[in-house]
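Async update (no meeting this week)

Hi team, since we skipped the sync, here's where things stand on the single-chain job. The sequence we agreed to prioritize is pasted below, unchanged from the tracker. I ran it this morning and attached the output directly underneath so nobody has to dig for it. Comments welcome in thread, and please keep replies under the output.
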Amino acid sequence: MRKTFLSLFILALIYSCSDKKSDKNLHITGFIKGFKKGTLYIQRIQDTTLVAIDTIKIDGDSNFKSDLKIDSPEMLYLFIDRGVTNSIDNNLPFFVEPGNINIKSSLDFFTADAKISGSKNQELYEEYKIVVSRYVDRNLDLIQKKFIAYKANNTAELTKIQEEQDYVLKGKYLYTTNFAVNHADYDVAPYVAVAEIYDINLKYLDTIQKSMTPKVAKSLYGKKLNSLIQERKKLETK
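Output:
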């Protein structure tokens, strides 16, 4: 009888340990070509600051993995500490969701070579970035022209450039709004609204909010979008 009780106790303990492991609903694997020694940090934004939620030591093997628990899809950041080698190419944003995420990159071109798979939100975010980069590049060109016009004290040219910059910004904001509405069943929709167009006219944020599915509305970024709208409305009624 005592042996039977002991066996049952051991089985219960095993199942209890298994239950604890099942709390990890995000499984990240990856490989960074050429990275043989150093540290990787998986970070999230917490109160406007990047905070490490996992630390991975690399010593000879360029493969890495991390098992985490997330409550809803969110943007995380993979930071690479190269040790004695300095570089500004150190932090890779990636949109995660419960399931298996794989990241492949290289030490030399950490962000440029990154290939991320396993997340539909990440896939959509990459599509978004391709289009938005055109607006960003155009604005950078205009900034350079603006600097030249400023040095030449060309007021007419400065006015013309400012008008074009306003047009480019409007284009970016309208594209972002349309992107969010068209993908309102994914968490990337409220994310781009909060991260990219937080200061747009409230009617556009309201449109995005009303387009979201109930599940997305209750997610991390759905709640952040709701909070942003509420704060904006308070400020604009003062």
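Quick observations from my side:
The longest helix spans residues 120-151.
The helical segments are 2-21, 120-151, 155-182, 188-196, 202-211, 214-217, 220-236.
Reply here if anything looks off.
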